[in-house]
Design goal:
The structure holds 2 protein chains of 2 kinds.
Chain A: E1 4-7, E2 10-13, E3 19-25, E4 33-38, E5 45-47, E6 57-62, E7 65-70, E8 80-85, E9 92-93, E10 97-101
Parallel strand pairs in A: 2-10
Antiparallel strand pairs in A: 1-3, 3-7, 4-5, 4-8, 6-7, 8-9, 8-10
Chain B: E1 3-7, E2 11-12, E3 18-25, E4 34-39, E5 45-51, E6 60-62, E7 70-75, E8 80-85, E9 94-101, E10 109-112, E11 116-120
Parallel strand pairs in B: 2-11
Antiparallel strand pairs in B: 1-3, 3-8, 4-5, 4-9, 5-6, 7-8, 9-10, 9-11
The chains are: A mainly beta, B mainly beta.
Amino acid sequence: DIQMTQSPSTLSASVGDRVTITCRASQSISSSLAWYQQKPGKAPKVLILESGVPSRFSGSGSGTEFTLTISSLQPDDFATYYCQQYETYPVTFGGGTKVEIK
Amino acid sequence: EVQLVESGGDLVQPGGSLRLSCAASGFTFSNYYMDWVRQAPGKGLEWVGRIRKRANSYTTEYAASVKGRFTISRDDSKNSLYLQMNSLKTEDTAVYYCTRVSDSGKFHFDSWGPGTLVTVSS
């Protein structure tokens, strides 16, 4: 199975900060990676790959290293973020990064 | 608007069985792969399994942790997805999400239901 490792596991930041979350795959997954945002008690929502996502969210990377960047953190962005690879079965997720208010 | 609504979650004893359902609306259900994803209390996301569409012979894939115990099926005439869970273990306790797999060529989950809670406990 492909292991997905996210860092950091928790991130404290302020509104307006630039935030970067890293996701590393245990082997190459080409560009087969998605990012999700989850708020407490809610289902995850996909970021980047779908329309309607605010432009402050951007993703980059290929192979084994990927990043999610929030260019200017907004109050609505405090949540937990997960990466997910869909290159091979089983589909696997990273452990999550919780973005907290500093 | 795409809607996915799970039902059937309950408290069940270890070794028991449960069947979850997911009602889909707002899109042509038969055209999509559908997956189940679960989340144990306070933990991260875990993929459970997939069922492909009719054109792909409704074939399935499962996580190793549930293979042989869980079965995913679908009824395109009812726009419904199912998860039959047998030989349940305490570690199966989780919120179970029904998800739609994108048909964009990127196999991410573009829609999620609100989830249904399964608790396995004596």
